[in-house]
Amino acid sequence: MNESDQLIEEPRLFDQLCSTWYLSIGFELVKKNKGKPGIDGVCIADFETRLDEELSQLKRELTGWTYKPSPVRRVEIPKPGGKGMRLLGIPTVRDRVVQATMKMLLEPVFEPQFSPHSYGFRPGRSQHQAVQAAQRIVNSGKPYVVDIDLSKFFDRIHHDRLIARMGQSITDKRILRLIGIMLRSGVMINGVVNPSKEGAVQGGPLSPLLSNIVLDELDQELEKRGLEFCRFADDCNIFVKSQKAADRVMEKVSQFIEKKLKLKVNREKSQVAKSDQVKFLGFTVVNGTIAIAHKALQTAMDKVKAMTPRGTHQTLSTTLDEINQWYVGWSNYYSLTYYPSQLRKIEAHIRRRLRSRLVHQQKRKKHLYRKLVKRGVPRKQAAKAVFANDKRWSLSNARAVTRAYPNSWFINLVGQEIRSDRKLEHWFDVSQWIRLA
Predict the structure, then answer these.
(1) Beta strand 228-232 pairing with 289-292
(2) pLDDT at 257
(3) Average pLDDT, the chain
(4) Which helix (H) or strand (E) holds 88?
(5) Are 183 and 196 in contact (CB under 8 A)?
(6) Rounded distance, CA 336 to CA 168, Å?
(7) Residue 281 DSSP class
(8) How, if at all, do strands 228-232 and 235-240 pair?
(9) What are φ and ψ of residue 273, in 5° steps?
(10) What is the per-residue pLDDT for 238?
(11) DSSP letter at 69?
């Protein structure tokens, strides 16, 4: 499409947004992503029961410029490692429908312009591709990483700069005006609406695309300087050959980000280091290979501990369900590691936590002794373990206990769960446990 054709087509974007057909596709995208209600308390299921009426109302409001986005509902979730809270905003379902529809219409306009070194929130691109690209760059002879951390990136997006940037590609001023209205819709905190003078809602369907539009200017600057980099959302790593070059790049790029993009670099979290000291999307490049970052492993260990608390009344079956749902997804993501022992470490920790619970369930030592003997442990070995005055955590790793509850016991238990509840088959991959037997 040449420039003249593009100028003819793009003014139709707002007309397409006002179509109930496009809005219905936007609703299907919202429904697929699920999500909680906004400040009006209307959930996706409620919205769907009167879908035709809701979409027709949206069309009338958009066409007549009476549409007014509601303030988003503020939600706080803990950051990994328990350091601070991440602030998210949940728009109402009707606002999410408008945003999802707009994203669907705008993405084809901006996607071809984005850098090949950008991987976040883009069709056909993933975190694994970003990590593998980082590995290739390191192996090409650039082991030093400039790891730039943007402080509260979504909260600091400059509205005027973003709209101006979009205006270079979008000639339909109605779309730009509507985006401006959305950005300024505000946030409701404890029943009080706080106006939004800057930033974009982290949690809205349109925000990922807007963030890429903002940071595409950074991508272009890095390409202009001939730098090799990988970016996933606001997580950007730049790769160079030497410490001296890395220090220089850190200073120059930080100045560009703060003076030109009007964003803020977190100097405390940003760093210059060799690749094996830098975490990128939960991974690190060690001696040219991909490994799970130490911090990600520790976070997983903490997650396992939280799912297997002491003194719980939850059944072992229910605990296994929760662990499997989490672990299958976690291990699939981190399957990129070149070191299977890292996965085995987590799996061994899961089993030890479960054995500790099994030990604790036997309230008296004599009961535990009888249980171990019943499960085939020699009497002498069982007595030595049980009556040594070790605490439950030490006992969980004792030879007598691991013999009574070997890896195969957990595999059989999981197999029984699958046979008794066929719904589990949709998500549980028993091979995750079998390969550790």
Answers:
(1) unpaired
(2) 96
(3) 88
(4) strand 85-90
(5) yes
(6) 39
(7) T
(8) antiparallel
(9) -160, 170
(10) 97
(11) P
Taking each helix axis as running N to C, give the angle between helix 294-307 and helix 340-361, from 0 to 180 degrees, rounded to the nearest 10. Answer: 20
CB atoms within 10 A of CB 388: 12
Amino acid at residue number 61: E
Q: Compute the distance between CA of residue 276 and CA of residue 286 in angstroms, rounded to an integer.
A: 5
pLDDT > 70: percent of the chain: 90
Percent of the chain with pLDDT over 90: 62
- Measured between alpha carbons, how far is 364 from 360 in angstroms, rounded to an integer? 9
Q: How far apart are CA 90 and CA 72, in angstroms?
A: 5
Total residue length of the chain: 437
- Identify the pLDDT of residue 434: 36
Cα distance between residue 151 and residue 264, in whole Å = 6
Residue 283 contacts residue 337 (beta carbons within 8 Å)? yes
119 touches 212 (CB < 8 A): no
Structure tokens that stand for 52 in this block: 């035709």
Whether the Cβ atoms of residue 213 and residue 169 lie closer than 8 Å to each other: no
Could you read off the pLDDT of 200-237 as tens digits, one per residue? 888 889 999 999 999 999 999 999 999 999 999 999 99
The C-alpha atoms of residue 402 and residue 400 are separated, in whole angstroms, by 6
Task: Give phi and psi for 102, each to the nearest 5.
Answer: -65, -40
Q: Name the phi and psi angles at 410, rounded to 5.
A: -70, -35
Residues in Cβ contact with 301 at an 8 Å cutoff, skipping those fewer than 6 apart: 346, 349
DSSP bridge pairs for 329: none
Name the nearest CA neighbour of 94 among 127, 75, 72.
72
Q: Which H or E element spans position 75?
A: strand 72-78
Contacts of 130 (CB under 8 A, 6+ apart): 119, 120, 230, 231, 232, 280, 281
CB 308 within 8 A of CB 353: yes
Separation of CA 50 from chain center: 32
- Closest by CA to 261, choosing from 146, 165, 175, is 165
Q: E-strand spans in 135-282?
A: 144-149, 187-189, 192-194, 228-232, 235-240, 271-274
**Beta-strand relationship, 271-274 and 144-149:** antiparallel
Longest CA pairwise span in the chain (Å)? 88
Instruction: Identify the sign of the CA torsion 57, 201, 90, 96.
Output: positive
Residue 193, classed as helix, strand or coil, is strand
Q: Which residue has tokens 């830098």?
A: 278
Q: Let me know if 121 is exposed, middle or buried by CB neighbors in 10 A (0-12, 13-18, 19+).
A: middle
Q: What is the pLDDT of residue 81?
A: 58
Structure tokens at 280: 């990128």
Q: Taking phi first (over 0 means left), then psi (-120 to 50 degrees means alpha), and beta for anything else, what does residue 33 get? A: alpha
CA–CA separation, 24 and 22 (whole Å) = 5
